[in-house]
Specification:
Blueprint: H1 3-19, H2 21-37, H3 42-54, H4 59-71, H5 80-96, E1 111-116, H6 123-136, E2 141-144, H7 151-164, E3 167-169, H8 177-190, E4 195-198, H9 208-224, E5 231-237, H10 243-255, E6 259-263, H11 273-281, E7 285-289, E8 297-299, H12 302-310
Parallel strand pairs: 1-4, 1-5, 2-3, 2-4, 5-6, 6-7
Antiparallel strand pairs: 7-8
Length: about 325
């Protein structure tokens, strides 16, 4: 590996551990009691299990980790790092099956990616970062401003298109989103674009009329390209914790979510929610974001995430 690659990897690890610091430090303080007692008794294990649940890992995963600690080969002289390693190993088992890259099929042109999520989840920024990644891979990209409710979202996406060298299609604020998406798929086909990324309005999963519009976007899109969308990414804000579970469930039923992007891991002590989501839904996790910069969206690594969440070195 060259020096620049090592540097980039090192920087990413620092951002990831920094992003998960609130989660890992809460867990670390619970584990610190073990050092004081110098033994792993039932009360201590219960305390650690409670902390894992509070970190939103989910009762199932927390229970399995507690069982591992109860029946694992640990003696009275167990160290905090040994406990953290047991936590990381169990978390990695849960996440390993869902850590999958976003695969673009070159035979499908355009490869249509619909990006959904609630308001404030970071959809538009994620699309911009993803466009930059795809352009860096040498692909042609078009961005469609399907969030026609907010003029700011249209403007923001236009800036990302200019910055990444992607083409851009939009209508005025308030225009029909399904009509814009229809035009976008047609235009991307005519231009032989490799990837079409479609932004959508931020929908609260409990607003049925807004979710119905999202279904309409998908229906209309299929009139131009029956196999589209080829991927449906749901962008989740890590800071919402348990609410993310219902988002995955409802968006999944409506538009068939094929992969997840978890954002805002740098602002929460609830990074463990990704573990609970993986446990319950088994939906692929493609990327995680720990900041606003274009390089702060990275492919999801189960091993790195598990160790950072447990507060271990890489």
């Amino acid at each position: 590996m060259d020096d620049s690659a090592t540097k980039t990897t090192g920087n990413w690890w620092q951002r990831l551990t920094g992003g998960l610091k609130k989660s890992s430090s809460a867990l670390g303080s619970a584990i610190a009691h073990v050092v004081a007692k110098r033994q792993l008794d039932a009360a201590t294990i219960d305390e650690i299990e409670d902390e894992l649940v509070r970190a939103d890992l989910g009762a199932e995963t927390a229970g399995r980790i507690a069982t591992e600690l109860r029946y694992g080969r640990f003696d009275a002289g167990i160290t905090p790092d040994e406990i953290k390693a047991a936590v990381a190993a169990e978390v990695e088992k849960v996440l390993a099956g869902v850590a999958q890259p976003l695969t673009i099929d070159p035979a499908l042109k355009p490869f249509v990616i619909l990006v959904a999520g609630v308001n404030g989840s970071g959809k538009t920024t994620t699309i911009g970062k993803l466009a930059a990644k795809l352009r860096a891979e040498g692909r042609t990209v078009m961005l469609a401003a399907g969030d026609t409710f907010r003029a700011a979202a249209i403007d923001q996406l236009k800036i990302w298109a200019e910055r990444s060298g992607a083409s851009f299609i939009a209508r005025e604020a308030g225009a029909d989103a399904a009509g814009l998406v229809y035009e976008a798929v047609e235009a991307a086909k005519q231009k032989n674009v490799d990837v079409l990324l479609i932004d959508t309005a931020g929908r609260l999963q409990n607003r049925t009329e807004l979710m119905g519009e999202l279904e309409k976007v998908v229906r209309v899109m299929k009139k131009v390209e029956p196999s589209a969308p080829h991927a449906v990414l749901l962008v989740l804000d890590a800071t919402v914790g348990q609410n993310a579970l219902s988002q995955v469930e409802i968006f999944g039923k409506l538009v068939g979510v094929t992969g997840l992007v978890m954002t805002k891991l740098d602002g929460t002590a609830r990074g463990g929610i990704l573990v609970a989501i993986a446990e319950k839904f088994k939906v692929p996790v493609h990327f995680i974001g720990v900041g606003e910069g274009v390089d702060d969206l990275a492919p999801f690594s189960a091993h790195d995430f598990a160790r950072a969440l447990a507060g271990l070195d890489s």
